Amino acid sequence: MSIDHVTVIGAGVMGGGIAAQIANAGVPVLLLDVVPEGATDRDAVARQAIARMIKADPAPFMSKRAAKRVTPGNIEDHLDRAADSDWIVEAVIEKPDIKQALYKKIEKVRKKGSIVSSNTSTLPRATLVDGMPKSFAADFLITHFFNPPRYMRLLEVVSGPENAAKTVSAFKAFADERLGKGVVDAHDTPGFIANRIGTFWIQRAIVEAIDRGLSIEEADACMGRPLGIPKTGVFGLMDLVGIDLMPYVDQSLANALPADDAYMAIRREVPLIGRMIADGYTGRKGKGGFYRLNTEGGGRVKEAIDLATGAYAPAAKPALESLRAARGGAKALVAHADKGGQYAWAVMSKTLAYAASLVPEIADDIDAVDRAMQQGYNWKKGPFGLIDAIGAGDMAARLADDGAAVPLLLQKAADAEGFYRIADGRRQYLTLDGGYADIVRPAGVTLLADVKLASQPVARNGSASLWDVGDGVACFEIHTKLNSIDQEVMSLLRKAIGIVAKDFKALVIYNEGSHFSAGANIGLALFAANTAMWPMIEDLVAQGQKIYADLKRAPFPVVAAPSGLALGGGCEILLHSDAVQAHAESYVGLVETGVGLVPAWGGCKEMLMRLASDPKRPHGPMAPVAQAFQTIGLADVAKSAFEAKEKGFLRETDAVTFNRDRLLADAKARALDLVDGYAPPEPVEIALPGPSGKAAIGLALDEFRAKGMLTPHDETVADALADVLTGGPKADHTEPMDEDAVLKLERAAFMRLVRTEPTLARMEHTLETGKPLRN
Questions:
Q1: pLDDT greater than 90 at residue 597
Q2: Which of 71, 123, 657, 680 is the most buried (most CB within 10 A)?
């Protein structure tokens, strides 16, 4: 079966977010909720939810176009419209009687074979289908999304013995390929997988921090990056998701778990949390939480609460020896003797042992558990990967020394090679019988990490590598910090073009870091500028222009496959590629003006030519100039692949992949599709308006000047950018310019700006703070 239309019932935060993600995937959605008492607009709840999501930041919708795919309605008048849906998902209040009353109404109107699911995070599937018709139970699943549904990858799916395999597989394929979810099969147990372990971890971390007298800054530092966990740690995470949710989740688990479960022994009421909730300190959505931003007196001071007194004070950077030792990773942290190391061991030893004790109760294997924590809580390794990082044998021995129980599965890992191993170039996981099994990727998933286990790079230096990904396709991977582009990247890219032309059919540019590329390494540029190495900077600009041009004119197809940030020089790679296969969560932009520069590796030139050739955009010498000036001048960043199309960074013909794990395989397939009959694009010319166009831009800026929105250096940068985009003082729209002429203007403008003190100040400020400087 295919899922071509969906109904979501419940327009709250979760229901609305689920509807938005379905609409992002191009699927029409009917969003229903109750009729407000006395309302003239009976669809007001759903309609207001859509309006709220359009304005929200971070945005549930990937573009405003997606919002048009959501139709508001109400349960009383429009439930019969759900008969057109292939999937009906409810996200209403967590009360079985209310849900079952709704299911009985759904059963009367839904079409045969349509999937019905609940987004519940606490109620067992068995409870929800109890007393319902067999026909309903056969099509009913639990589909537990994590909030916010657009950004959190995990989707826990709970099926039952009544479900046909084809029903479950059809839904999982839709969730994986269309919604981009990491689908994990969970058993019908309390809290399923991620929240069962995650809630234990949070409770343990809170109680141990209080009992051991740690500040929340110290606790979060220990529970964060050293363990491969987001820097929010535990208290910052609670602020993010809402402190008021914690007592609810805790009570729900406690109601469902047996009395002898390890969670029951650690849970306890924390009076401070109760007072915070009562006073409106529920986290970021409230007046503050464990952290708050104090803006009294016009300042912005981050404050942290004292767990003992409940008083706020300016947040302090932790000064624990264990955190310095933790640069060596989790093993070094939990082995340290100071209070930070002891705290980390007290929390993680119990949490990881708890996870080991729950398999196979909550999932069939350890890989499912690790994927759930990686994608639901953003842990880099998952519990069993973390045990391996600490050492399964060391952990089992230390637990025994502490007088704690050693779970059977942990003992098996200690007696073997750990929970994971590499054998014959394949990653394997420990099975319940103590043997090992290959991690098998779903059809259509190719990971560069797997390629690396089984092969050596075709070429490599300290900043980049070239890999053979099969079928005559090579993959160019950048692996610097933030995948920034330096001279080594450029050197290997130049070499790769020659290798691919000789030995391969096509090239994919891709990596599995958090970001495609944050752009040029401005730290190196700043160093060179501060030491007046102007010839070196100009040579780097010229070489970058040539290598990107060579990439564009290469005798083989080039497909860029971005995910995360593709900024500055990273965006310019996309602009010079034959095609882009973009992950939906790609954030694309030419942001050089933020550091006082202009794009100079062909970004201005390519944007002009792309906008001028787009049949859906206004034509004439000034139209592409005006749009390019606005987009580049404002350092505008598209916040999804779909926005990148709207802004002109991507073409309408460029494709979008929703599941990050499928990106490389999709890009490779796209590259192979281009091979037959491939010819590189011919050089083109463009008519630019010259001085008259620059004058028009100046008039357009007058409004910003009058409002005081332009700083002195903004004026300088805008002037240089306008010079490039309009073709310079000698340009005439009756005499088209070639690409090299525009590149020369880019290079000259860049070199003028990089010699100015305000630009150097902007570069230095961005490096130090990660934020732009307005000077």
A1: yes
A2: 657
Residue 454: the pLDDT is: 93
Select from 3.40.462.20, 3.30.70.120, 3.40.50.10070, 3.90.226.10 the CATH code of 458-587+637-681: 3.90.226.10
Q: The domain 6-185: what is its CATH number? A: 3.40.50.720
Question: Which SS3 state, helix, strand or coil, does residue 213 take?
Answer: coil
The residues facing 474 across adjacent strands are 468, 507
Q: What is the pLDDT of residue 205?
A: 97
Distance, in Å, from the CA atom of 511 to the CA atom of 303, rounded to the nearest integer, reads: 38
Q: What value does the mean pLDDT take over residues 365-388?
A: 97
Q: Do 497 and 465 form a contact (C-beta atoms < 8 A)?
A: no
Q: What are phi and psi of 738, to 5 degrees?
A: -90, 175
Of the candidates 546, 552, 498, 544, the residue with the CA atom closest to the CA atom of residue 519: 544
SS3 per residue for 420-446: EEEECCEEEEECCCCCEEECCCCCCCC
What radius of gyration do the chain's Cα atoms show?
28
CATH T-level topology, domain 194-430: N-(1-d-carboxylethyl)-l-norvaline Dehydrogenase; domain 2 (1.10.1040)
Question: What residue spans define the domains of the chain?
Answer: 6-185, 194-430, 458-587+637-681, 592-634+683-775
What is the average pLDDT across 67-74? Answer: 98
Q: Distance between the two ends of the chain, CA-based, in angstroms?
A: 58
How far is C-alpha 375 from the chain's CA centre?
Answer: 10
**pTM of the predicted model as reported, rounded to 2 decimal places:** 0.94
Phi, psi of 201 (to 5 degrees): -60, -45
**Would you place residue 79 in the very low, low, confident or very high pLDDT band (cuts 50, 70, 90)?**
very high
The dihedral sign for the CA sequence 655, 658, 663, 668: negative
